[in-house]
Every structure is written in C-alpha cells, then in structure tokens.
Amino acid sequence: MYNENLLNNLSFKEYRLDKLKKYNKLQIPKWKRINLQDFDIPDYREYNNLQLPGHEDLDIRDMGTVKEDINEFTRYLRVNEEFGVDKKFVTLTEALSNSGVIIKIEKNKRISEPIRLDFKMDNDNPLLLDHNLIIAKRNSELTVVMDYTSNTKVFHSGVTKVYAEDNSNVTIIKLQRMDEDSDDFDSNIAIVGRDAKVNWVSIELGGKITASSFITNLKEDNSKADLKSIYFGDKDMEIDVQYKMNHFGRRSESNINTKGALKDRAKKVFRGDLDFKKGASRSKGEEEEYVLLLDKTVKSDAIPALICGEDDVEGEHAASAGQINELKLFYLMSRGISESQAKKMIVEASFKPVIDKIPYEDLKEKVEENIHRRLIDEKS
Amino acid sequence: MEKKKRTYIADIQRGIYDQKNEFKYKYKSEKGLTSKIVKEISREKNEPQWMLDFRLKSLEIYNSKPVPTWGPDLSDLDIDNIVHYIRPDADISTDWDEVPEDIKKTFDSLGIPEAEKKSLAGVGAQYDSEIVYHNIKQELVDQGVVYTDMETAMKDYEDIVKEHFMKLVPPNDHKFAALHGAVWSGGSFVYVPEGVKVDIPLQSYFRLNAPGAGQFEHTLIIVEKGAEVHFIEGCSAPKYSVNNLHAGCVELFVKEDARLRYSTIENWSKNMYNLNTKRAVVDKNGTIEWVSGSFGSKVAMLYPMSILRGERAKAEFTGITFAANGQYLDTGSKVVHAAPYTTSNINSKSISKDGGYALYRGLLRVAPNAHGSKSTVSCESLMLDNESNSDTIPIIDLKNDDIDIGHEAKIGRISDEAIFYLMSRGISEEEAKAMIVRGFVEPIAKELPLEYAVELNNLIKIELEGTIG
After folding, report:
1. Which of A67, B83, B135, B180 is deepest in the core (most CB within 10 A)?
2. Which of B386, B404, B405 sits opposite A281 (nearest CB)?
3. Collapsed DSSP state (helix, strand, coil) of residue A328
4. How many A-B residue pairs are in contact by the CB < 8 A criterion?
C-alpha cells in the first residue's frame, strides 16, 4: 500500500523515496504511557480540501505543485536530527505527504495580519499527511494560524518545519479540534537564528489519541522561543504532548507554559524538556505545567526534565497538579454560583490567556464554545 | 563575550578514606559468578537449605535479566572480574581489642570506636564481606532491641528473617537485586519492639578494602508499632585501579505509628559501581525519613523508595549528591502513595564540578485509592563549571484527582551578585564561594547528627579546596 507507485506524480521525488525507504524499515511504535498498541495506519487517500490563502507580499505554495525535483526548498526539508512524535509517523508524512503548504516571507517584510490555513477533514478526505514549511528570512515578521478540524473519524499525521532566520519573529498558532474518534500525530520543529524569536501557541481539544511534539532549536545567540499551550481531555481521550527547548546559542531564552484540564477517563502525558547544551552560556529557560483534575478516574503523568551541560544558565521548571482551589471555589459559591458552574468558570479562566492569542473572533468563539459544551455536560 | 572566571577545584585528596590495608583474607571466592561460587558462599556461611535455594534461584534470575541501559553506562563493569565473597582475617567480635590491629586501625581513623563511646547506641562494622564488630548498649538489649549482623540474625531470628528477607525488594525487581540475592553477605539486622524509642542512633559502617571485589551487605530493619529509631549507614573504600562493585540491599519495615530515620553518608572511592537498592514500606501513621549524602563512587544508581501503604503514612527525603571528575551519579527518590491522606516531601540538591555528571531521577506515583494525598518535590542543582553536567528527570504519575502535588526544579551556577555582595563585605572570593555552597547544602547538613554534619562540611571543604582562577 505505501509503496513507490504512490510517489509517481509527486514533488521532491528523490527526497520522498529516501524517506519511504526509512519508513518501510521502521515499526509502528508501541507506547505505554498512553495506550498505543497494534496501531494501524490507514490506507493512502488523496486530500483535496486544501485552499491556499493568497497574499501579495508572500510566497505561498502548495507543496504538491512544486514540480522540480530539487529546488530552493529542498534544503529546508532536510532536518538532520530526529524529531517529532515518532520516526514512523514523521517519515510517513515526509515520504507521502498528500498536502502541505510552503510559506516564505522575504527579508525585511513584516506582515501583521495573520495567514490562515484551514485543514478540514471529512468522509471524502479522511487522511491528512500535511508537510509544511515556513521560512522567515532575515528581519521579517509573520503569523500563521493552522486549524485542524474534522466532522468524522479521521487520521492526521503532520510535519511542520519552521525556519526563523536572524532577527525574524514567527508566530505559529495551532488548533486541533478534530472529531473525538480521530487519531492525531503532529510533529513540529523550529530552527531559530540570531536575535530571532518563535512563538508557539498550541490548543489541543480533539481526537481520541492526540500526540503532538514541538521541538525548538535555539541555534544562535540571543534566539528566543515562547510556547503557550492548553489541552482539554474528556471521555477516553489520550493526550501526549512533548515540548522541547534545545539551547545552543548564548543568551538564548525559552519559556514553556502549559495548562490543562482532564475529566472523565482522560489520560495525559506532559513531557517538557529544557536542554542547555554546553556553550549556551547565560541562557535562561522556564517551564511550567498546571493541570486541573476534574474526576477521580483521570490519569495524569508529567515528566519535566532539565538537562544541563553548561553552568552559566538559569533553568527552572515546575509542575503541579490538583483539584480546583477550594478557596476559589468557595468564594464563587458564596456568591450564589453553583459548584459545577464555578468549576467551569475556573477552568475557562485559566485557559483564557492562551485562547486570547487566537487572532480570529470566529475561531476564538468556537474554541470557547467547544470547552464550554464539554465542561457543561458534567453529571452534577 | 568576556570569559567568566571560574573556580578551579583540584581533585579531592581523600586522606583517611584512601588508607589501604594489606589484602588479607581467610577465604575468598574465585572471580566471577557461577552456581559453584554461590554454593561455596552458602557453605562457608553454614546456611539453611532455604537460603541456598533462594541464592540459586536469584542467580537464575540474574542470568536471565539484561543489564539496564536507561541510565549510566555499565559496560565497563565486568562481573566476571569481581570477587563476590571475601571473608576477612577476623571473626566477629563485640570488643574492639579483639579486632585485628590493621582492621581496627582503619575503623579508628574513620572515627567509629570514638563515635561509639560518645554518641551511638550501637555499632556494626563490616570489612569486605563479613561483619568484624557488632555491639549494642545493654539497656537497649534489656528493652528487647535487637541489633546484630545478618548472619547471626539468620541463626537466632530465622523466622523473622525468612518472613521479611527480600520480600520488599524481590530478586526479580532488577538485575542487581538478583545479584544481591545470589551473593549477599554481611549487613545489619535491627528489630525495635513495640513502643520502644531508641533516642541515640545506631550505626553500621561498611568498608571495602579488597581490590576488584564486591560488597553485598543486606540491611533489614523492622520498627514495630509506635517505636522509633535512627539508623546511620556509612560506607567507604580506598581507591584501586580496578572496578569495585557495591550492590547492597536495604529493606525497611515501618509499622503503625512508628518512625524510622535512615541516614547515609556514602563516600565510596571513585572506582566503585554503587548499584544499591533501598526500599521502605510504611504502615498507618508511620514515618520514614531518608537522609542521603552521595559523594563517592564512579557510577551510582541509587533511588531510595518509600511505599506509603497505610493511611496518613509519611515519607521525607533529603538528599545531596556531589559529582566530581570521573563520576556519574544517577540518584533520586521514588515515592508510591498507595493509601489515602499520605504525604511525601522530597528535597534534593546536587552539585557537579570538574566534568562530573549529577542526575536526579525521581518517581512520584499516586494510586487511584490515595485520595487526599499531598506531595512536594523540590530539586536544586548547582554547577560549578561548564565541563560538568546536571540533569533533572522527575516523573509524576497521578491516578487520582483529590491530591495536591507540586514539583519544582532549579538549575544554575553561583550567582555573581551573591559573590559580589559577600566580597563587598570583606570576604574573600574563595570563602564567599565556599559559604554559598555550604548554605546550599545547609538544609541537608542540619538533618544529620553533629559528627556527620561536620564530616559533610569536611567533605565539601575538601572538594572545594583549590585555586581561584
């Protein structure tokens, strides 16, 4: 099924062939923290829902329409290190992406209005393997919003590679609002240049299995990265999020701030790594996770690791978990608000700062409505 | 960017710890590990059949398990080159004068007999594979407290030993627990009867003198309902060019309302693989307190574990790890909250310098029935140069919503502002740095009995002595 024949009419053939060989050698992973056993990758299907947004100052292309085998983007496709949720899913998408967008912003261009990419999945498009390249040249500024939705059970494996060259500022806002039976594997990597900054915003709401990975390589001096994320798990959802900041450059700075809520039988694993490589002197990293556990039956794992090969750094992480603060709850209830209403308000309030990062009113409302609806059908 | 000045710290002169005695023994097993050697050890100890069976079963498990690869590199550890059993040229005694001169001298310079007179209620001293001295104050004997070596306990309290021995750390737990089950020798047995409070600490000291040898002592402590005791474990060895191995096992049973404090100052030489397993199970309202200082060893994998199985049981862990040149110290703590309203409090500090690798690896698990449990974990690392490494990998695993968990970790170097401030008050740079390091470990030092706090400060002083560059 996943063989060379599928590559016939695709771009970057040589690159894809190489990845396909690797893909075929790899096993589908087994994960124990969230239960991934005997997983089957569904058959290849075309994806035809991509609509390219236009912008006069940007080079935006459909990955599938790039015909020359080797071109200016080839080098950006190659990432010489392991990244992502798992090699199997990453190589699958790298070999056989059926969609994907290349966005390039030239140097000194600053575009304030965001670029919006909607990845809609449905019965006719139940498989999305999107491979995206976002290239910000020197001294540029860009915001991209990627919204993944489905109205039925679908499979998504995405790879997004972000290059923030010197002094650029790139914001990537990812929303995952897929159907509750869907499986989502999303791998992201950013390479950050001198004085450049990458801002990640990740909102994980849907899926049955949701695995996402955001790796940021702070390659050069003064590079910065900021990651804000929220997740909400209910029913039998299984969420595995990985955030990794690799500090190479001197005075590089990173910040990870994650908030989540779990109810019903939801399971979650948070992996947050701050890795200070030797030579990354005077770098700073901070990491914080807070999860609200709304039911007895949830399961929450956190592995916040600090890895340090350089002494002249400041690294800090904190992870905490608990029920809703009783004082807050008591205060709200003393004002005549019911317990379930009060809990809902507290969860929503803790998510608010991240949701406010979404630059579109309609999307913001949809996200708020999604969380609100799932919090409300509480038994009480 | 201007290059920062760094403290250059010379490698540690370990003084008394490095005194070697001539290698004398009554009996030693061949190098390596075979069922023949295991049978010989058992025969030498004149053990009951069940223990021999247990040893042989453990050996089977040992052979079936792979060497763990998730931690430090153990490929340099060659079990076939380790002598697993050495009976020293001395019999167990309750009188220091009967201990052979060279062995007594070693313990003298470590200050053990002196401390016994001043501040300990009982002392055990192990030399290579066997205990050479064991004594306890008469008034404790009168209250029914048992403090003896494991070999004697095997004979005099066989039922209790059989009921508890390697039940908490079964041989199939991991490869080196199985190794311990097969070749264990020496160690201490403590039994504190119901309601007895032992005010002054008991201490066992483990000394490995032989080169290329292994020490596999077993410590079993049972603290009955409402009883209290403080047990101190010390270990050291002179440095040899061949690898030594320490795979001891500590099993602690803390019953209802009981309290046990278990303190360790480990200062093995830097040719030692310290693969020790320590575990405590705590019943209702009981408390286990771990105080752990890891200074020595080439490679350490040490994660004392507390299983809180009774309601309102409590665990406290205070640990410090100091990794210098050539050391890879992978230490941490594990806590399992297996009953409601249990609490744990973990406080770990690590210092790395001169290429040393200090790693905190922790596990905090809350079982579905452990509602109302609370835990705080705090890890701090201090790196003295950028040749060194310091990692923190805590795993938090929660299966209950009614809990209160907090974890924090910090990593960094001695802040320039703090040094500047102290120097502006007329304190030299060297002294300022030493003060900051002492302040950093102070929370640990104050948990130790005075003599050990002094030893800890000495060790740090030795480690920090050097030129400012």
Report:
1. B180
2. B386
3. helix
4. 118
- Residue B314, pLDDT > 50, answer yes
The closest alpha carbon to B79, from B208, B214, B237, belongs to: B214
CA atoms within 13 A on the CB side of B456: 28
Using an 8 Å Cβ cutoff, are B332 and B361 in contact?
yes
Has residue B309 been placed in a domain?
yes
At B7, is the pLDDT very low, low, confident or very high (cuts 50, 70, 90)?
Answer: very low
**Is residue B235 located within the same domain as residue B88?**
yes
* B68 shares its domain with B152: yes
Tell me how close the Cα of B387 comes to any Cα of chain A, in angstroms: 7
Q: Answer yes or no: is B13 within a domain.
A: no
CB contact under 8 A, B411 and A304: no
**Which of A276, A299, A312 is closest, CB to CB, to B398?**
A299
Domain that holds residue A202: 4-323
pLDDT digits (tens, 9 = 90+) for B146-196: 999 999 999 999 999 999 999 999 999 999 999 999 999 999 999 999 999
Q: What is the rounded average pLDDT for all residues in chain A?
A: 91
Chain A residue at shortest CA distance from B374: A322
Of the three residues B415, B432, B458, the one that is the final residue of a domain is B415
Whole-angstrom distance, CA of residue B359 vs CA of residue B389: 8
Question: Does residue A13 form part of some domain?
Answer: yes
**Domain total in chain B:** 2
Query: What value does the mean pLDDT take over residues B359-376?
Result: 92
Q: Which two tokens stand for residue A82?
A: 């392991």
Give the pLDDT band of residue A69 (cuts 50, 70, 90): low
Phi-psi region at B303: left, alpha or beta (left = phi > 0; alpha = psi -120 to 50): beta
Q: Which residue of A has its CA nearest to B359?
A: A307
Residues β-bridged to residue A271: A242, A303
Select the more confidently predicted residue: A38 or A148.
Answer: A148
Label residue B465 by pLDDT band (50, 70, 90).
low
> Is pLDDT above 80 for B390?
yes
What is the distance between the alpha carbons of residues B287 and A248, in angstroms, rounded to a whole number? 44
Q: B314 lies in a domain?
A: yes
Chain B nearest CA to A306, separation (Å):
5
Amino acid at B145: V
- Is B5 within the bounds of a domain? no
Alpha-carbon gap: A147 to the closest alpha carbon of chain B (Å): 31
Per-residue pLDDT at B467: 32
Residue type, B337: H
Taking residues B426-442, report their average pLDDT.
82
Domain that holds residue B449: 416-469
Residue of A nearest to B1 (CA): A250
Q: How many domains does chain A have?
A: 1
Same domain, B374 and B420: no
Cross-chain CB nearest to A311 (options B385, B396, B409): B385
Q: Is the backbone of residue B293 left (phi > 0), alpha (psi -120 to 50) or beta?
A: beta
Cβ of B409 within 8 Å of Cβ of A304? The answer is yes
Please give the residue that has the higher pLDDT: either B339 or B110. Answer: B339
What pLDDT digit, counting tens, does each position of B109-158 carry? 888 888 888 878 888 889 888 888 899 999 999 999 999 999 999 999 99
Give yes or no for a contact between A321 and A290, defined as CB atoms under 8 angstroms apart: yes
Q: Record the tokens describing residue A208, joined without a space.
A: 């049955």
**B364 shares its domain with B441:** no
To test the contact with chain A by mutation, choose from B351, B382, B386, B436 the residue with the greatest count of A C-beta atoms within 10 A, namely B386
What pLDDT was estimated at residue A10?
Answer: 77
